[in-house]
Amino acid sequence: MSAFQYLLVYNSISFTFAAMAAATIFLWFGRSEVAPPYRTALVISGLVTAIAAYHYFRIFQSWEAAFLFENGVVSNTGYAFNDAYRYVDWLLTVPLLLIELVLVMRLSRDETVSKATRLGVAAALMVILGYPGEIADSNGTRALWGFLSTIPFAYIVYELFSGLSRAIETQPPQVRSLLKQARLLTFASWGFYPIVYMAPFAGLDGPTANTTIQIGYTVADLVAKVGLGILIYIIAIRKSEIEMTKTTPVQA
Amino acid sequence: MSAFQYLLVYNSISFTFAAMAAATIFLWFGRSEVAPPYRTALVISGLVTAIAAYHYFRIFQSWEAAFLFENGVVSNTGYAFNDAYRYVDWLLTVPLLLIELVLVMRLSRDETVSKATRLGVAAALMVILGYPGEIADSNGTRALWGFLSTIPFAYIVYELFSGLSRAIETQPPQVRSLLKQARLLTFASWGFYPIVYMAPFAGLDGPTANTTIQIGYTVADLVAKVGLGILIYIIAIRKSEIEMTKTTPVQA
């Protein structure tokens, strides 16, 4: 691994830890700026970035332990870089990301529970099925598990663009386009993970494949977690304002 | 590197960590002292100093790892001092600094979004374009990237002194001069970075250039982040008082 590759990953991981921790504090402070029904959505958005901050801290330590960077030369220490931190993170955060999207819509209790459960289970399944492929040595095994993981992913996309569409139409007109942006951001950033997953198929191997995977997943995590968190915050603020104006007609 | 140079940087970095962490706590406690529309400005001011505190902690660790100070003699350990922490920090904090300045003005929603977006993007571009020059070996490459980075900087200065001037005139008279001070402080402290950046052109090299750059950036960070944060706090307090007096005419 070149010094450039080593430092690019090193600094990106440190940057992402700082960004996730900052987003967490922002989202949790935002809790008291929104109406009570939207507070849980902000708590969960902040939990997602907090869990990610913890894992990026661990990934940073693991990266430092795996390589020795001395006199401008990078060498392996013999300790393996622990890639599982990312999957452990996603197992917790990916279902929560879908739940924060459902919660900010403030549907009926039954709808919230049913949508959150179905999307959450599918998301967990998607992460679990991807992992055996990530650690596989052969590209064939990687492709097989990658394909299996795509089945729950396709179900989530179907739910987002079909089931959730009807729910979006019941939302106040001022936030519909924001909700569609949040859905698109979820879809686009999640669609980025399988592309990174397939980096070894593009003929990349060794340090170059590893660097591409690390940077790719890091960028996708930033968009999917911090980006979605900020959108959820804006939607919660807008909906709180709309509902407050409605209940106090004097201001209208 | 002389023992004096080593210790000067070492203690300045430790000082700055403490100052950033203290400013963070001050700004976040201040949140409950101001009217609700100004809380986000204080949260973000505190986020800027919190992110900086994290990076000064890392810079401190990196400085300790890079040099051995034993029996009064400083020697290199072979581990490189990681200069990228500063750029990673600025990539997050410099856009946020401009956003806190826009937020405390409490403009219309559209104006806030458009000004925050344009200034934020220009600030990120300025930092990204500066980095290749910072790590370049030749002064020519340093000058080239430094010049490119000056283009978004010039745009920010133009926005601050033209677009923001009109906005400042809509502010209550009691805070106009404070807002102009905040703008001047931003301009003056940011103007300090390119001067430090060009230290190698003044014929400085090796440890002397390194010490000058470290101390220069540290002082600039303190003024730009802690200094601006305190000004934003004072402006938020004054504006909260003015608006409270307006809505409760009994006190007027």
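qc> Strands of chain A lie at 67-70, 73-76.
qc> done
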